Amino acid sequence: MGKRIVIALGGNALGNNLPEQMIAVKKTSKAIADLIEEGHEVIISHGNGPQVGMIQTAMTELVRSDPEKYIPCPLSVCVAMSQGYIGYDLQNALREELLDRGIEKGVATVLTQVVVDSEDPAFKNPTKPIGSFMTKEEADRMVAERGYQIIEDAGRGYRRVVASPKPQSIVEISTVHALVNAGLVVVACGGGGIPVTTQGHHLKGAAAVIDKDFASCVLAQQVDADCLIILTAVEKAAIHFGKPEQQWLSDITPEQARQYISEGHFAPGSMLPKVQAALQFAESKPGRYSLITLLEKAKDGIAGKTGTVIRG
Ligand code: ADP
Ligand code: MG
User: Fold this and answer.
1) Helix (H) / strand (E) containing 252
2) Would you call 239 helix, strand, or coil by DSSP?
């Protein structure tokens, strides 16, 4: 029986620059097509760290080149651009891979906005550095003109920091649903989604970045997926990671996951959000489960042969 699966792609699925991404998406598409070929419904989300960084830097350079002519590009717009550009590459690579296998299936990218709470405590304590380094003068100017929050980064210069609030809901969820139900492969919530806060019917772009693993967890719940697969650079999560007593984790219970989280086994900003997202999805409804594994092992993972699995 085919499952409904949300696949969250990590940085290694997309590479660090334009030519790398062109190559990486081919391999990524093979892993995804393997699951589609087995009859699963697939919804794809992905990270955007290097891509949004590149776009942000380019937009900043434009302002630097002629500050009278150009104004800084809001971060929400940079995220939207990254969704479009990554979706473009993924759509084409997947289309080609599916056609090579004789599968006629449309692939569509949905520019996805994700609602965050303007009162989220993360806004009071922005921690995520983004964009290129600035001089003291540029930094002062951005604070005065744009209200940016800036940190001095270990003597290397000044950098903007933004909040990483928790995703609450997906604005375009009914569009995603309609496309999935029509049999299309959907790419959604790229880069964790374009962060917005609600003001009545108005959606306001927020100066924030949403963790893609948490956004994928919300997406998986909202499309009523059976399984959330987080594909990354390791085959399994581990306890005592990188130490001599390291132990890879296969099937773990929610209780074990909670215990390992509290013991600090997973690094914040990398494995921790994955295990937290996997745990939250697995517990969100009976029968749901999460899998964390290597991109190349997606098929084996869904067959129960590898990866770290959390069942609710
Ligand atoms: P992605 O781009 O897929 O989100 P990240 O680099 O953010 O990838 O997170 C995956 C990385 O987390 C792994 O490559 C690994 O180096 C690191 N990591 C940190 N703690 C652990 C752990 N306990 N078990 C496995 N990997 C871990
Ligand atoms: Mg990550």
Assistant:
1) strand 251-252
2) strand
Chain Cα centroid distance, residue 5? 15
Q: pTM surpassing 0.70? A: yes
Instruction: Quickly tell me which residue has 């980064």 as its tokens.
Output: 153
Alpha-carbon separation of residue 94 from 27, 30, 80, 110, 232 (angstroms): 10, 8, 21, 15, 19
pLDDT tens figures, 83-133: 999 999 999 999 999 999 999 999 999 999 999 999 999 999 898 888 778
125 counts as catalytic? no
Burial of 175 (0-12, 13-18, 19+ CB in 10 A): middle
Q: Across residues 5-10, what is the average pLDDT?
A: 98
What pLDDT score does 153 carry? Answer: 76
Phi, psi (degrees; rounded to nearest 5) at 199: -135, 85
Q: And the tokens for 174?
A: 């009914």
Q: How far, in Å, are 8, 28, 41, 106, 179 from residue 183 at the CA level?
A: 19, 20, 8, 8, 7
Looking at residue 154, its pLDDT comes to 72
Known catalytic residue: 128?
Answer: yes
Cite the DSSP H helix spans in the chain. Answer: 18-37, 49-65, 75-100, 136-146, 173-181, 212-222, 254-262, 271-283, 298-302
**Of the listed 106, 128, 157, 166, which one is catalytic?**
128
Q: Please tell me the distance from the alpha carbon of residue 105 to that of residue 115, in angstroms, as a whole number.
A: 30
- CB 129, CB 170: distance < 8 Å: no
Average pLDDT over residues 73-91: 96
Instruction: Check 12, 30, 297, 301 and give the catalytic one.
Output: 12
Nearest ligand to residue 7 Cα: 1
Residue linked to tokens 């380094």: 133
Number of H helices, E strands in the chain: 9, 17
Distance CA 77, CA 87 (A): 15
